[in-house]
Amino acid sequence: MKQLARVCLIFVSLTFLTAHFSTVNAQVCFPSAQGEKAKYSAYIDMPQGYVSGVCVLFNEGTVIRGSLFNEFGITALSFSYDIKKEKIKLYSVVKLMDKWYIKKILKKDLKQLMKCLQKGESVYQDVKYHITYSFSTLNTEEVYDTEE
Predict the structure, then answer these.
(1) What is the Cα–Cα distance from 45 to 79, expressed in whole angstroms?
(2) Which burial class, exposed, middle or buried, applies to 52 when counting CB atoms under 10 A from its CB (0-12, 13-18, 19+)?
(3) β-sheet bridge partners, residue 78
(4) d(Cα 60, Cα 7) in Å, to the nearest integer?
């Protein structure tokens, strides 16, 4: 039964990622000015599993606020990045990753990921812990026709 649930979850995740990767822009954008927002298709691959979903970053001047939501709309993590001090503050982390040693790695990795996104790079790899962070800008400019 657990194997079936795992296969279903992987299928749903791959379907979600395929749908979003097909609508991404070629270049990764970063919310560099106050009031700007960026939306990404996010995939964090770890040796024990993965987290995938949509990440939203919002620039509040000197601080970037971010949240990562999984396919079911559950907030996997919420954080802020102080641009000048280059510091990450975690506000909430999904129970699976809510351990002090995991949060310590997450803070370090998110800091490096923010620097990569600012440079236009979409992937960051933590070689020591074998964690890969892949972010692709979502194209939200598409207009869907709701008329029948």
Answers:
(1) 19
(2) buried
(3) 67, 92
(4) 40
